[in-house]
Give the backbone structure.
Amino acid sequence: MTDHGAASSRPISHNRAVWQQFRSHKGALFGLVILGLLTLAVLIGPLIWVPDKLTVAEAIKLKNQGPSLRFPLGTDQLGRDMLSRMMLAGRISLAVGFVAMIIAIVFGTFIGVIAGYYRKLDGPLMRLTDMFLALPLVPLLLVLVVLFRDRVAGLLGPELGAFLLIVFAIGITSWMQAARIVRGEVLTLKEREYVLAARSIGTAPRRIIWRHILPNVISPVMVAATLGVAEAIITESVLSFLGLGFPPDFPTWGRLLFDALSYMQVYPERVIWPGLAISLTVLSVNFIGDGLRDALDPRIRGR
Amino acid sequence: MLTFTLRRLLLAIPTLLVISLVIFLLVDLAPGSPMSEIPLTVPPDVRQRMIEALGADQPVFFRYFLWLRQFFWVEPATLFDSWFGTSLAGDEQRILSWQSRSPVFTIIGQRIPQTLTVIGTAYLVAVLIALPIGIYSAYRQYSFFDQAGTLFAMIGFSVPTFFSGTLFIIIFAVWLGWFPTKYDTQLSVTDWPSFLERVRQMVLPVMTLALANAAAISRYMRSSMLDNMGMDYVRTARAKGMPEKTVILKHVLRNSLIPVVTVIALGIPSIFGGAIITENLFGVNGIGAALIGAIHANDIPMVQTLAFIFAILIVLFNLIADVLYGLLDPRIRYD
């Protein structure tokens, strides 16, 4: 710990210290800015940028256009404006990433806390985790999506059905890391004196978990969650890339890339835009995760 | 060590059985069964006969045990027969693909060499790129090279292979025209020009897979080297007046390779999964492409068998990594 005299003699709050450490990580700041810009663009963009409604004849005339003032990213093979499609696709891609991450983290944390806290359940739950880790995930996800797509679409409509199915499938196959991390943390936390004290005054296990255990596992969970968003976005685009993700009129970045593949030799930019968007998002999320890991680790912070 | 290996092997059996059951039931009980694909114009009695011909009218567990028996007894026995001319398998039913009506393992046998050539080369290239980068980044920590390596690894993690592969195709195949866009599976290597042709068409898929894997391995190598460079034995070696090259390349490197070797072993099954994308992008006719084809065609036995083979690979390489770790590092005693 370095001491800067009077300036640091005043104690600083935890959040502030975390932010200061986070700010010193250039990559993380860059990631935060880029992710913020991308999120703003896909959230507000479609409200500002409303392309004119074209008739079929006009759309056919305007298909495969290069970039122009009217169509900043050109048009696709059906005369649709690429910029507005990119923004709408980004909404879904980001939403898939966040929702799938939340499912995975909630489920993983639940399994991890239960396994770490209740000794009897530890063995079976960890065997379950090991088994999930040994499952071939990409093939299984593909199979899941193909086999259940029509049934779920029939129940919930094609768009919501595809969204929920994919988000759920990704969530249910990526909770294992979080569960393992949380279990490890809980195993050490529950031997601490304050947990012992809480137990000795007769606090119910559920309350100990909510009040004393969960707030203390939040840092590793946050890092796992950040990296989980990146993972989920990539998984979704892999599914879309193999033609097994979202329907074509409900695009994601992966789907746009897949659609553009057939025109790759003539219009390479149509592949590059969505690919660049996916890569930039994942890159910035990974950088944020990296920065968070450093910022939340008290051994690194302040050095 | 032997008891540990045996115990792990025995533990792998129930794991694999549960996984096989999960895969079988998931694929089998799903609503989108191939029976729903039969056109409605087919009369009911013909439909019934079609279902019977595929064996899909039997109870689920009966079919599960039949499939397990075929997988673990009939198929190995058939392989044994074809090698040694015995007749262990007799004329028992093998696992048949619903698409082509030929045995699933015959198809896999035809596809696997393609996958192994491309993926094997890619992984080898990845390791060969990653180790020097990792070693040098650790040796010159926080130098320009290290920073560049970190950025390279971060980009390697983040850019998905389907995009990097597409970019490579656009740049090197479409614009520069150095390499073909598609992998020609028919090409057989007979002479020097055809060998060069094979190398040329392998460059893009190998580069795509290698870059993605090299990113992760180089980071592991770097952090493992950094862990070891602070050890006392390194200071002792330097204090003895050993040349820096010997210290780094003999003492530090050997110890740092222990965790990296296990990471490399652990990564092998996942690159088979990742290869599904690369094979589709470059048109390599391997098992990944076979899996996608089978999924699109609702070829249930093929999907189940391929998915289970992937699972076996994962369990097997986990086991290999554990055993390797114990063998390489005598400080770790499992017994």
Remarks:
- Chain B is about 75% helix and 0% strand.
